[in-house]
Specification:
By secondary structure, the protein is an alpha/beta fold. It has 13 helices and 9 strands. The chain has a 9-stranded mixed β-sheet, sandwiched between helices. Helix 1 packs parallel to helix 12, helix 5 crosses helix 8 and helix 10 runs parallel beside helix 13. The mean pLDDT is 94. Bound molecules: beta-D-ribofuranose and calcium ion (CA). The site of calcium ion (CA) has 9 residues, from loops.
């Protein structure tokens, strides 16, 4: 059983990550923390609470950072709409937020559990995680690992070089990738090309029926228009749920070791995750006068078993629908 804190900015694919985490018996969802990203933190928090209300998910939800550490705020309204979760209808939230700020929730939860038992799953900009490290660096040694959606070793989606979550708060991503803990980068190379809501998956979800299936189908119907239109992706990408899936069944992704650096200041490359792959020979240093030491300690998600991924989504949907 993997104990996780899902740090998110719902967000259509974030909502599916919530459902997968809540609906799989191998995940112990300790809490949901929210951050600004796809929309402002008021909307992402409301969307998280409403999703939990609608589908009987009873976990603490703690509201987090309203904006990035240093950069100007960038929202993904053109992808996720004016509410951050346009398309499906959701009820108003019927339960209260956790009284703590997300940063304190993360620190207190990690410190309250045995060392190396809690995994952080950031699937929005990494602002909360970076602030939690700053506020209490003990969490670095205490966390089991970090499985983060974001970055890319090939192309970006908000710029040619950068993926949205990293671009939206590159300084926070820099803090997270520099910290001495185990980070897996589940980037666009996997999520935007392989984790797609294919017609076959949509048919399987439709066959389950009921309100949760409708919610997921409505999510994909909306995202098909923005992913298809703006990004020219064939089917909706289910980015964030890939992190949860990889924790449920590590065999669902193949990985390679790399040393990842975040570009915080490039004119055309701000937010780029520069991946130095061990398997490809590995460059000996990152250049610059510092000639920084290379350490292939990061893990990069490479290939997704799409069939198994779809099975997990359908299984979670069936379980939640029975509750
Ligand atoms: C990431 O950006 C957001 O729009 C999605 O929710 C996902 O976390 C993909 O680049
Ligand atoms: Ca997200």
């Amino acid at each position: 059983m993997e104990k996780i804190i899902l740090d998110c900015d719902p967000g259509h694919d974030d909502a599916i990550a919530i459902l997968l985490a809540a609906g799989n018996p191998n995940i112990d969802l300790l809490g949901i923390t929210t951050v600004s990203g796809n929309h402002n933190v008021e909307n992402t928090t409301r969307n998280a609470l409403s999703t939990c209300t609608a589908y009987g998910i009873k976990v603490p939800v703690a509201k987090g950072s309203p904006g990035p550490l240093v950069s100007d705020q960038v929202l993904a309204v053109e992808i996720h709409g004016e509410t951050g979760l346009d398309g499906p209808e959701l009820p108003p939230a019927s339960f209260d937020l956790d009284r703590r700020h997300a940063v304190d929730f993360i620190i207190e939860t990690v410190m309250a559990h045995e060392p190396k038992t809690v995994t952080l799953v950031p699937v929005g900009p990494y602002t909360n995680i970076a602030l939690a490290i700053r506020k209490d660096p003990r969490i670095i040694g205490r966390v089991k690992k970090v499985v983060a959606m974001g970055g890319s070793y090939t192309r970006g989606n908000i710029t040619p070089a950068a993926e949205f979550n990293v671009y939206a708060d590159p300084e926070a991503a820099d803090v997270v990738f520099r910290a001495d803990w185990d980070v897996t980068m589940v980037g666009l190379d996997l999520t935007q090309t392989q984790a797609l809501a294919t017609p076959d998956l949509q048919d399987r979800v439709r066959a389950v029926g009921g309100p949760i299936a409708k919610f997921i189908l409505d999510i994909w119907a909306f995202i098909a228009t923005t992913h298809g239109g703006l990004l020219q992706i064939a089917y909706p990408a289910i980015h964030d749920a890939c992190c949860v899936a990889a924790l449920i069944d590590p065999a669902i992704i193949t990985t390679e070791k790399a040393d990842i650096r975040v570009e915080t200041a490039g004119r055309w490359t701000k937010g780029m995750t520069v991946c130095n792959f061990e398997k490809m020979g590995g460059m000996r240093h990152f250049g610059g006068t510092a000639g920084e030491q290379v350490n292939f300690r990061h893990t990069v998600a490479m290939k997704l078993d799409h069939q198994k991924f779809c099975d997990l989504i359908v299984d979670a949907l069936e379980r939640l629908s029975r509750n």
